[in-house]
Design brief:
Layout: H1 41-45, H2 57-68, E1 87-93, H3 99-113, E2 118-120, E3 127-132, H4 134-140, E4 147-150, H5 155-160, E5 178-183, H6 188-203, H7 228-237, H8 248-262, H9 280-291, H10 295-312, H11 317-328, H12 335-350, H13 356-372, H14 376-392, H15 396-412, H16 416-434, H17 437-450
Helix pairs in contact: 2-8, 3-6, 9-10, 10-11, 11-12, 12-13, 13-14, 13-15, 14-15, 15-16, 15-17, 16-17
Length: 454
């Protein structure tokens, strides 16, 4: 992954007035001193409870081939590659306060859920996670929040030869060393997210696909912690029936039997395969919308992506994401069409495998619209539906935002004690997701402003 597309960082209302800017971490300094064990994912969310994979095995075969034999740039990968034998993970650089705790929790999940022989070591490791300041990282790769590279074991080694042939993933057969570059000064949630996706890519396939909604290998960034689907793919990727150096055809021949053995519940028949390639023009429009400096330009690009999706006849995550972004960046006074687009996106996500989490992100925006319109009972219904998937997917930014919206509606319904209790419960999740108590307060104040008379 070369960068994370942060589509759910703010409420981004498209109602009668222009939306307030989202309280992202950049609006308030990251407070590393606030990153105590009390706001680790282990303390806040307890035992992991990921959603199980919902896609049928024939679809997962297609997914694994696309994830594993193509890079995000579109380049073909000619052979299957992975580590062989036990894998060690070593942390170095400016390790953030919760770096060790979050890494150990990830390793425990990889061992239990994916059956991987992986552990953290102090001296050596085939996977090295080098924590560097965000500004340092972005001077070299401006768009990256975190990324991985083969055949190097430190940021300094990468900087010595940043364009060397040894960094070409298409030449790798058996993985020997992989470097994960992660921010040392981010929110706990962003640091955790980077660890999950980048270490998983170091141990598994390298590509991201917008059409897979139940995976972190999707740059829409709705799924932020490894899912049951991801753990199944990692188990498949590291199955003894596969070997480094195999061709795509050889892997394709063996995948059905591997999945039948590892995922018997996925042997059922399912809908037609999602095997229609995503045109580069659609991806460019989506990425451009998310990075556009002006709202009007972002909306125009989102509309371009929506047009491509409609003309292609898609009814999957790609259409839903285009609808979502069209609503998020809708111009002032276009609130009704924005609500219709959000509603349609929620329906699509709700009908897709693993769609509960992406749908919860859409329902956050619908609940914000409802709160601004004074529809407090609707706010309660939407947040009641969205909060369990937000908690189960361990997304503190999403969960705290939903809790604060719900608290504001409860307060207006004269349920003040319940509202205050919910705000107190939301506070540590907001620090986890937004990076500091100051940022958490900014989020609370933004939500409170939605509930005041205009």
């Amino acid at each position: 992954m070369t960068g994370r597309l942060l589509v759910a960082a703010g409420l981004a209302l498209a109602a009668c007035a222009a939306p307030p800017p989202p309280p992202q971490a950049s609006r308030a300094p990251i407070d590393l001193a606030a990153q105590s064990p009390a706001i680790s994912s282990r303390a806040l969310f307890g035992a992991p409870d990921p959603f199980p994979p919902e896609r049928h095995n024939a679809q997962i075969v297609q997914d694994v081939l696309e994830l594993g034999f193509r890079l995000e740039s579109g380049r073909e990968v000619p052979q299957f590659s992975r580590f062989e034998g036990p894998v060690g993970i070593r942390l170095r650089g400016d390790i953030p306060p919760l770096g060790v705790i979050e890494t150990d929790r990830l390793i425990d999940r990889l061992r239990r859920e994916a059956g991987l022989d992986v552990r953290r070591g102090e001296a050596e490791g085939q996977i090295v996670v080098d924590f560097v300041p965000r500004a340092t990282m972005r001077r070299v790769i401006p768009e990256a929040a975190c990324f991985i590279l083969p055949n190097v074991d430190s940021w300094d080694a990468f900087r010595t030869s940043p364009r060397g042939a040894h960094l070409d993933w298409t030449r790798v057969v058996q993985r020997e060393k992989v470097l994960v570059v992660a921010p040392s000064d981010s929110t706990v949630q962003e640091m955790r997210d980077c660890l999950h996706e980048e270490v998983a890519q170091a141990m598994g396939p390298l590509n991201d696909l917008f059409r897979i909604g139940e995976s972190v290998w999707n740059d829409d960034n709705f799924q932020t912690a490894l899912t049951g689907y991801d753990m199944l793919v990692l188990r498949v990727w590291n199955d003894p029936a596969l070997r480094p150096g195999m061709t795509r055809e050889q892997v394709a021949e063996r995948l059905p039997a591997i999945l039948a053995r590892l995922n018997p519940r996925g042997e059922r028949e399912g809908p037609p395969l999602d095997d229609v390639p995503t045109p580069r023009a659609w991806t460019v429009a989506i990425e451009g919308a998310l990075g556009a400096p002006r709202r009007a330009r972002a909306h125009a690009l989102a509309q371009d992506a929506l047009g491509i999706a409609v003309r292609a006849g898609w009814r999957d995550e790609r259409l839903a994401l285009a609808l979502f972004l069209s609503a998020r960046f809708a111009p002032e006074g276009d609130g009704q069409r924005a609500i219709e687009a959000l509603t349609q996106a929620a329906l699509i996500y709700g009908a897709r495998p693993g769609g509960a989490v992406p749908r919860a992100h859409v329902e956050l925006h619908l609940a914000a619209q409802a709160l601004a319109a004074g529809q407090d009972p609707l706010v309660l219904r939407l947040t009641d539906n969205a909060m369990p998937p937000a908690r189960r997917s361990e997304n503190g930014a999403l969960l705290s935002s939903l809790m604060l919206l719900r608290a504001q509606a409860l307060e207006r319904m004269d349920r003040t004690a319940e509202a205050e209790r919910l705000r107190r419960q939301a506070a540590p999740f907001a620090v986890f997701g937004f990076g500091s108590e100051q940022a958490a307060r900014a989020r609370r104040e933004e939500v409170a402003a939605l509930g005041r008379p205009r």
